[in-house]
Amino acid sequence: MFAISLGDDAELRPLEPWRAEEFLAHMDRGREYIGQHIGLADATADLDSARNWLQSYADKTAADAGRLYGIWLDGLLVGGVLFKVFDAAAGNCEVGCWLEPAAAGQGLVTRAARVIIDWAVYERGIHRVEWMVSPKNTPSVNVAKRLGMTREGLLRATYLYRGVRQDAEVWSILAPEWRAAGRDAR
Question: What's the pTM?
Answer without folding.
Answer: 0.95
